[in-house]
Amino acid sequence: MDWCRYRFRSLWTLPAPVGAVYTALERAEDYPLWWPQVRRVDRVDDTTGIIRIRSFVPYDLVFTAKEVRRDPVAGVLEIGMTGDLDGWARWTLTADGTGTRARYDQEVEARKPLMRRLAVPGRPVFRANHALMMRAGRRGLGAYLEAV
User: Fold this and answer.
1) Which of 7, 65, 118, 121 has the most other CB atoms within 10 Å of its CB?
2) What's the CATH code of the domain at 138?
């Protein structure tokens, strides 16, 4: 097992139609408005940005996100990631009654030296840190969608 590789899946139920959720999620530069752990998103061009995140564990992760797939009909947004995290992340949105079910999948390798050095003993902490970040993101996006 490679202790520096992670696979995550989160499922969010959101109180807004798919189109509204998709619009919010495709605007990565607005994530810091509703997702507390996304500290900064700096656009490089129309399909690339540099993202800085920090959750409960006191360290920042910085990576470049490059759009791989943007398909509003299928409800899919996917990025490739390079930097402190290398890999990919994908949102897949489907209707759920009058709301939306958002599935977030991510496969990454930790490249940040501290995470690599602490890979074995820190793994449960890193996974819990990710879960806390995703929980806050779900709450934040839900509130953001209700306000717009």
Assistant:
1) 65
2) 3.30.530.20
